């Protein structure tokens, strides 16, 4: 959907004294004559350009972890300044979600680019609760899963501000604050797992840093270029956080056109969580599309890596299709990854373009992993 003004007023000037009819064209009346020359009709104003585009999408979801439900997304994509042809489009939006197992949540957020891409900022605020199965830390793929039901919820705030320092490199600080609670949903605790007392009612506060180099030709549907992205968050008791720990994430995306209708995309990612990290901030599969085909939180640990490649192909009309595959793994330490515990995945997907100007796609991906399969529906590309 889009909002904007179309058309313009057609202004017509008329004279109070109409000229006498003449059988043939003649010279213009002299000044002071009783006959007045007809005035020229002003040209119509060009239609005003649309400032931005709305994106509205209901997203059905189904997962063994949280059940079936619906995620409703409302977004607005626009330019902060209409004459800024350097900055990528900014976006603000709201999301609301609910599932059959009682999970609920909502939030607002945005990513803004301004001053001809000299600055960019990201912010988000939300509140919710989620009921899910916790599979422990370091699950071994070839063994039966053991899980416990957990109820967790709270509020969060996140914000960051980045500045371009040249050659498409951005750097800046980030901040996050969360007030969380966690409970075991039931009296049975398979495997003897208990939520640590410090995490039953917890506050986590972190200062961080974000470094990025972005040469993509689009933030929504890149066809060429690359993205290097490094984030570090430092949770500290001096900031009001109950626990002291650090999380790091490094990723690299590459895009290349293949023929007139194809795009080859590649992604590599590593994650690390150190010191007294709580169970809900471990590196985990199934949340950020780092490797599709795995249920959220089924595999998690202090160290993680994932690689994947995806071929995207435009079809007739607004449709498109993708095929993808990858492999990853989790371990407690970097020197403890094992080849027989790697996590491969393959899948296919369908795309439908819901916003033509910025090429924003509605995405449906079906993937098979080592421990099952997933169906993921969302807005925008997986990476």
Secondary-structure blueprint:
Elements (H helix, E strand, L loop, with lengths): L1 E2 L48 E12 L3 E12 L11 E10 L4 E11 L4 E16 L13 E19 L2 E16 L12 H4 E14 L10 E11 L9 E14 L3 E14 L7 E2 L15 E2 L1 E12 L4 E13 L11 E13 L4 E10 L2 E8 L4
Antiparallel strand pairs: 1-2, 2-3, 3-4, 4-5, 5-6, 6-7, 7-8, 8-9, 9-10, 10-11, 11-12, 12-15, 13-14, 15-16, 16-17, 17-18, 18-19
Order of helices and strands: EEEEEEEEHEEEEEEEEEEE
Q: In the residues, how many domains can be counted?
A: 1
Number of strands: 19
Question: What's the overall average pLDDT, rounded?
Answer: 86
Q: Extract low-pLDDT stretches.
A: 1-37
Provide an overview of this structure.
- With 383 residues, the protein is mainly β.
- The chain has one domain (52-379): Porin.
- It is 1% helix and 55% strand.
- It is built from one helix and 19 strands.
- It has one helix at residues 197-200, and strands spanning 2-3, 52-63, 67-78, 90-99, 104-114, 119-134, 148-166, 169-184, 201-214, 225-235, 245-258, 262-275, 283-284, 300-301, 303-314, 319-331, 343-355, 360-369, 372-379.
- Strand 11 and strand 12 (262-275) form a beta hairpin.
- The chain is globular and about 80 Å long.
- The two termini are 24 Å apart.
- Mean pLDDT is 86; it is low at 1-37.
Characterize this entry briefly.
The protein is mostly beta strands. Helix content is 1%, strand content 55%. The strands form two sheets. The chain has a 17-stranded antiparallel beta sheet. The chain has a two-stranded antiparallel sheet with strand order 13-14.
